[in-house]
Design a protein that fits this description.
By secondary structure, this protein is an alpha+beta fold. 27% of the residues lie in helices and 29% in strands. The chain has 2 domains: 170 residues, Bira Bifunctional Protein, Domain 2 (BirA Bifunctional Protein, domain 2); 88 residues, Alpha-Beta Plaits (2-Layer Sandwich). The chain has 8 helices and 10 strands. The strands form 2 sheets. The chain has a 6-stranded antiparallel beta sheet. Strands 8-9-7-10 form a 4-stranded antiparallel beta sheet. A hairpin with a 2-residue loop joins β4 and β5.
Length: 303
């Protein structure tokens, strides 16, 4: 079974089914470090809009001779080689108008915003939308003009499209002042009941249910010399064993032995349960299991 890393993976399938305007919402999975803003599963929204030449230029006077494609065009920073600049600029205007309206609906009509040029593999040109919120600029979403090769793989040869994507948890953390992304997976009624309302526009600010102390243990080991090692494999192993009791994993030291040239890593694992106090004995028991699994599966030598 292959877990999707982004909902963009469904674009070709849905476009092939004949859809030209749609949203895709779903859970996605990524290998990542564990901390208050990163979690291996979160929810993403993708939006897509496709337009024919008539739809692109319907509000442009004297557009009878305008086309969305050109032959032997050259790709630059402002367009793909197959698109006309006129079509891209109209689509860019439509895309940004829609997404600014979305940001204003979420953060208020007077919110300050800015566009930042960006690179994404599925769109070109591409941008990030940032808003000024709580005294700092934050990224809200990424977007751009869909790569025409994607549309061609879906059997579309007469349209141009735009797309955007955003992460729901990160957005909700900003809007509701939620400090830890793992809270979205809590079954604690003290957390969940704060968001029960009949008014979707009601302003809700998260109130911490309880705060428990952290427990931290370090683990140091020599990396294997006869096989490959990747820190993400260690993060996965810790997550598999410690589950939600692991709050953070930090690489705090890297040492190369001057004579043997062996490499040593030291990680600090911070444990904290979301619903109760962890005892040091509980933490030590989990930590010993992590040490044993690291030796057996990653072939490291515990120091």
């Amino acid at each position: 079974m292959l877990l999707r890393a982004h909902t963009t993976a469904h674009q070709v399938e849905l476009i092939s089914m004949g859809l030209d305007n749609f949203l895709v919402i779903g859970d996605v999975y990524r290998r990542d470090e564990i901390d208050s803003t990163h979690y291996p599963v979160f929810h993403q929204v993708d939006g897509v809009r496709l337009c024919t030449a008539d739809e692109v230029f319907q509000n442009v006077k004297g557009s009878g001779k305008l086309n969305i494609f050109e032959h032997r065009g050259v790709e630059g920073t402002d367009k793909q080689g197959c698109h006309t600049l006129e079509a891209v600029k109209v689509m860019e205007y439509d895309l940004k108008r829609v997404l600014v309206s979305l940001a204003q609906a979420l953060f208020g009509q007077s919110v300050k915003y800015r566009w930042v040029d960006e690179y994404f593999p599925f769109t070109h040109p591409s941008w990030e939308l940032e808003v000024f919120f709580n005294g700092k600029w934050i990224e809200v979403l990424g977007c751009g003009i869909i790569r025409q090769e994607i549309l061609q793989r879906a059997g579309i040869s007469d349209r141009i499209g735009w797309a955007f994507g955003l992460g729901l948890e990160r957005l909700a953390m900003c809007l509701y002042s939620i400090p830890d992304i793992r809270l979205f997976w809590s079954l604690d009624s003290g957390f969940l009941n704060q968001f029960i309302t009949d008014d979707p526009h009601k302003k809700i600010t998260y109130k911490p249910v309880s705060i428990y102390p952290q427990c931290s243990n370090d683990i140091s080991f020599w990396l294997p010399q006869d096989s490959a090692y990747c820190s993400n494999d260690f993060y996965d192993l810790v997550r598999d064993i410690g589950g939600d009791t692991v709050e953070q994993i930090q690489l705090v030291d890297e040492f190369v032995h001057p004579k043997t040239k062996k490499v040593s890593h030291c990680y600090r694992i911070i444990y904290r349960h979301m619903e109760r106090v962890l005892t040091q004995d509980e933490v030590n028991d989990i930590h010993k299991k992590i040490e044993k699994a690291s030796k057996d599966l990653l072939h490291v030598v515990i120091r």
